[in-house]
Input
Amino acid sequence: MKVSAAIIARFQTPYLHEGHHFILNTVKENHHKVVIVLGVSPVKGGTRNPFDFYTRERMIRQAFPEAVVLPLKDCRTDEEWSADLDALLKNNFPGENFLLYGGRDSFIPFYKGVFKTAVLPEAGNFSSTTIREEGADRVLDSADFRYGINYAYHNQYPRVNPTVDIAVLKNHEYVLLGKKKGCDQWRFPGGFVDPADNCYEDAALRELGEECGPVVTSPMHYLGSSAIDDWRYKNENHKIISTLFGAVWTEGEPVAQDDLAVVEWIPLNSLKGMITTDRVVNEHKVLFKILLDYLQKNNGNRTGLNYLQ
Output
């Protein structure tokens, strides 16, 4: 029985370039039966894997209508992925033997399965990564282009955007609050968690420094978290959840910068009145209540302020 071919690839590109055509045609010349297995990332909408299985299948079948194209999900380990690949081919094509083809930087060094492998020939210095990066800011004047954007956003998982806010307390009497430019209501300093942050505590320290300058505090202490009724996300599937941290000021003069136009030490005993008189931004009212509840619960033999230390 002749050996069938299975090309294991991702084809994460908006079009099949000359290298792809050369590879596919070369394999077809040596095998009457060719199966293309496309890797499928568990992350939807990432810059490394922007095209889902259906989009890439249509692209391949447009150029090679006779192609058999199958999806294979990414796995945590090479062993698990290899077993899934073997099972995919054996279950869909019982009794057939396959030669698995991979290209540059391919799966071959990581494959732990039963089939033999072969490196696909190179045909020029083509890079799907380069093609994606070069086209990342390219806007086309076509309905297909706009439908593609619409398709991509409608096929994302609903996303929670994590933020951190910080209640810095001073002398058992004050909390550091800020105002944004053009807004006369108070808020905690804070902002979105960055992918480079190692943890929420690090994000809180970074945001405090960016918005309030050289302020030194005790370690960040978790006070609570809540979904935020942010006006920017009112009509979106994506939402914000903020984590509120508390810390005690030790030194440094706060200076408003970045998103904040004003920072001031505000008396703690005025917070309840500020909420009821609408002097707090709506998004942060729930966070103010978290702080007040925390201080009240920990105001026994030791005050809530000391508890943060």
Observations:
- The CA atoms of residues 240 and 258 lie 20 Å apart.
